[in-house]
Structure formats: C-alpha cells, structure tokens
Write a structure and sequence with these properties.
This protein is of the alpha+beta class. 29% of the residues lie in helices and 22% in strands. It contains 9 helices and 10 strands. Pfam families: DBD_Tnp_Mut, MULE.
C-alpha cells in the first residue's frame, strides 16, 4: 500500500545513493546558502562572532555519534588510509573517504563507483598531486577493503570556500543522526550549525534539510514504509485494545484504462479508541471538529473531533487521515463518527 497524493519536489530526499547531485530547490532555502567561512581549511570555526545554541558548549558529537551508527571510521582524520584496511560496507567506506577529504579541505573526483568498487582521485591528480584511493568488495569476507592508496595529499588549496564538494547530505546525515535521534524536532538551522562547528564548512540549507529527511527515515522508517505498516498497526491496536474502531479505505491503481488489483493506494483512514468513547459520556454534549494540513512527502489532512469535560479539559474522541478537506472526506469522517457510536448513545451536537 502506497501513500496518497503526489510526491513532493524532492522525490529522492530519502534515497540512499552515492550521487553527489542534489535535487531541485526546496521551499525556504533561498536565503540560507550565503556567507563565507574563514576557517574552511582549519577545522571547526572558533570565531567569537559566530553564535551557537547554548548547549553546543557541552555537546560532544563524537560521543553522541559512535562509528557503528554514523559511518566514518577514520575518526579525527589524522590517520591515513592503509592498504588492506577494511570497512563493514560500502557506505562506511565512502563516508570515511569523504570525511578524510573534508577535514583536510581538499576535494577528489569519483572515477568509478558501483556495487564492487569505489575509486577516487584528487581533483588535481597529475597536476602536482598523486593522491588516489581504490576500495573494493572482498566477496569471501563480505567487507570492503582499501586495495590501492597513494597518499597523503600533496596539493594545497589556494582559495577558501564556504562549502565542500564532498560534504553532501549523506555525510551530514551521519553527523546529525544523534541530534535527530535525541529530538526529531531539531531545526535545520541547528543541524546546519552543528555541521559547521564540526567540519568548518557551512553546508547549504537544502543539503541539511535533505540530511535530516534521511536521518528521520533511518530512525523511524521512510514514508512508504509507514504507509505499508498502517494495516498492521490497525490490526495490532484492535487485538490489544478490544473495542477500537478503525476504517481503512484504499483506492486501486489504474494504468491507462485498466485497474491493477495487486496494488492499492491509501485513501482514507478513520479510527477511535474505547477510552475516548467511554470518556465522552462524562463530557459536555458538544463535539467540535476541525482539520489541519500535514506537511511531508505526501501531504494530506488530519481531521479531529474533540469534546470538553466539566473543567474545560480537551478530550480527542475520533481521528481521520484524508486526502484533503472536501465534501466526500467530511462525509466519510462524520458518518463513521456517528456509526461507531462514539457518543455511546448520549445525545450531543456537532
């Protein structure tokens, strides 16, 4: 079962690929990608004019971001790669190479990248620098190993940049993953500052936004996985809380003039819990209804019915996820609200 609505303009914001290409612009990043960083070549910024949130003074990113979770295994990047050095998978190998290059303020080009190998060379290879690295899969061991390495870099950057080619959203995701895990509502601005404080480069708002989407997907699952799990969640709640009312409505997939019965799309979902129905017996005989837009890859609208007790405390009594607010969706919500006997036979007013 797939989500309703059309995907947003950043369709691959949660895709885990090896491309350094970013998708089209997202809303809200037009004025957040400016400014130079005078510390781009020398690690984290120590400028007294830079303002960070108060908790940054005690935030230990290395402690919050163990290698097993975040990817790079080169650590503080004072260590050169070694022939035979192994990585658990390609993602960790690539993140390590990128981390190494970012911390040194040098860039490289990817020569080859597929399911068997990853090969990169300094962008000034043959022009005063011989740095290159080749990592390949060892099928017998199931690990990725450094098969060839010429280092360290002999090329020194002659200009200062506020961003870095290898500082893509995959690398940023690895760094901000502990922040998102601790607080899923952490802002893009805070994540952007945390990345700059660690690497000395200021990534664009768009990169950090994409990184946060990927981090959320790694922690909580992506949009498609969430919709696929919805029927299982519904059955689980009904089995553990008898009396739960849930109504799931789907739509068939149409290709041209034909209907594909093997796949359906999420359309509408109504549910309420037994405690909500029981508690309403002790509330004022008035039900208020409203809807709010959902912001994410698939949008939609959340409809809600609430009541008040004698102390004016708000009690939610029924919920619904819809494609939007229209006559049909409201009719679906209100008809199920009445049919499930939410009021317990108690007369009330909508």
């Amino acid at each position: 079962m797939q989500g309703f609505g059309e995907p947003d303009r950043v369709e691959n914001a949660m895709c885990d690929d090896d491309s350094d290409q970013e998708p089209v612009d997202i809303i809200g990043d037009s004025n957040d990608d400016t400014g130079a960083n005078p510390h781009a070549q020398h690690g984290p910024s120590s400028s007294g004019t830079q303002q960070y949130p108060p908790h940054f003074s005690t935030l230990n990113l290395e402690a919050l971001c163990p290698q097993a979770d975040c990817g790079p295994t080169v650590g503080g990047s004072s260590t050169e790669f070694q022939i035979g050095q192994s990585f658990q998978n390609k993602d960790k190998a690539v993140l390590s190479v990128k981390d190494y290059s970012i911390r040194r303020g040098v860039e490289y080009r990817v020569i080859e990248s597929d399911h068997l190998k990853y090969h990169g060379k300094c962008k000034e290879f043959g022009k005063g620098c011989t740095w290159l690295i080749r990592v390949a899969l060892r099928a017998r061991k199931g690990t990725w190993e450094v098969r060839r390495y010429n280092g360290p870099h002999t090329f020194l950057a002659t200009s200062i940049s506020s961003d870095h080619r290898q500082l893509d959203y995959h690398v940023i995701c690895a760094k901000i993953l502990p922040l998102v895990r601790a607080d899923a509502a952490v802002t893009v601005k805070v994540s952007q500052q945390a990345t700059e404080a660690d690497y000395g480069f200021k990534p664009s708002y768009r990169k950090v936004w994409m990184a946060k989407q990927k981090a959320v997907a790694q922690i909580y699952g992506d949009w498609e996985e969430s919709y696929v799990e919805l029927p299982h969640w519904m059955l689980g709640v009904q089995s553990t809380m008898p009396g739960t009312v849930s109504v799931l409505k789907t739509s068939p997939v149409r290709f041209g003039g034909e209907v594909n019965e093997s796949t359906v799309y999420f359309h509408r979902f109504f549910w309420t819990f037994p405690p909500c129905i029981e508690a309403f017996r002790h509330c004022k005989p008035l039900v208020s209804i409203d809807g709010t837009h959902l912001y994410g890859k698939y949008g939609g609208t959340l409809l809600l019915a609430i009541a008040q007790d004698g102390n004016s405390n708000i009690l939610p009594i029924a919920f619904a996820l819809m494609e939007g607010e229209n006559t049909e969706s409201w009719s679906f919500f209100l008809s199920n609200l009445r049919a499930c006997d939410t009021t317990g036979g108690y007369p009330c007013y909508l």
